Amino acid sequence: MVQNMPDTRGRRDAEKRARELLSGKVAFIGDVGQAAAERVAAQEGVQAARERARELIEQARREGDRLIEQARSRVSDADAGYAEAFRRAVQEGWSAAMLTAMGYAAPPRPARRVAQSSTPDDAVRAVPAVPAQRPVEPVVDEQMREATAA
Question: pLDDT (tens digit, 9 = 90+) per residue, 59-114?
Fold first, then answer.
């Protein structure tokens, strides 16, 4: 029996050393498990970010469309107001020639409805181009004074 004791002690020492070695490894495997879980969560976060980005892009596109439509509506309203003011000035005695001599462009005539065209080019030609207009300082020269005095 005395001979079994060293074997038991040796066995315990070996197991103790093995536990010490494994305890360090167990801590590392815990780190690996945690890192793996964080990796999965990060990958899921990319997918969630991708979906949110798509939503934001679509939202921005709709907002951009709305802003463009508002701007076009303001241009249309401003064009109508300008045409009406120009028409009233002509009715009150100003000639279109005098107004254009002062730098005010004649407003475009309303586009006539064109029957369905056979080609897209025909449709484009049917819509008058609206020249860019900028505010102009009225200039009154001798001819203008003479024209309005008469």
Answer: 999 999 999 999 999 999 999 999 999 999 999 999 999 999 999 999 988 767 66
Q: How far apart are the first and last CA of the chain?
A: 144
pTM over 0.85: no
For 145-149, the CB contacts below 8 A with 24+ separation are: 147/95, 147/98, 148/93, 148/98
- The span from the CA of 69 to the CA of 71, in Å, is 5
